[in-house]
Amino acid sequence: MQKVNRSTCPAESWGERCSAFRLLAGTDLAVAEEVMPAGTSERRHVHAKARQFFYVLAGRLTMAGPAGEATLGPGDGPEIAPGVAHRAHNPFAEAARFLVISAPTTEGDRTDLGCLTTVSTGVAFSR
């Protein structure tokens, strides 16, 4: 068994000043610790194959999906099924730190939908 720690993982920048630490980068399972500073957002997007689970460690995060938005705090997390459009954003004053677990990996499995608005039809998040 190999120990993994955020401090030993390379940081990747994404979006607007956000960062990801790839804790596990397998083709069948990927785990990242991500940080979204206050006022940042990702583009609405969809994954054809990957099922994802977001788990908030610190701060607050808003997830936008087909049924609207859900504000998540420490200990909260939604499951995002394959094919469900979503986006994470942080409209709050503090940074959000969270895990993103994806099976299989999202590498090569992301389609940006080109706008930052919430989708208004479809299924709700699991809580």
Q: How does this structure look, described?
A:
With 127 residues, the protein is mostly beta strands. It has a domain at 18-86. 0% of the residues lie in helices and 45% in strands. The chain has no helices and 12 strands. It has a 6-stranded antiparallel β-sheet, with no helix packed on it. It has a 4-stranded antiparallel β-sheet with strand order 4-10-7-8, with no helix packed on it. A hairpin with a 4-residue loop joins strand 2 (18-25) and strand 3. The protein is globular.
Number of strands: 12
* Main sheet attributes: strand count, strand direction, barrel closure: 6 strands, antiparallel
**Poorly predicted runs of 5 or more residues:** 116-127
Span between termini: 31 Å
Strand content: 35-45%
Strand order of the largest sheet: 1-2-3-11-6-9
Overall mean pLDDT stands at: 90
- The H/E string reads EEEEEEEEEEEE
What is the molecular shape? globular
Structural class: mainly beta
Question: Could you give the topology of this structure?
Answer:
Blueprint: E1 11-14, E2 18-25, E3 30-36, E4 40-41, E5 45-46, E6 51-58, E7 61-65, E8 68-72, E9 79-80, E10 87-90, E11 96-103, E12 111-112
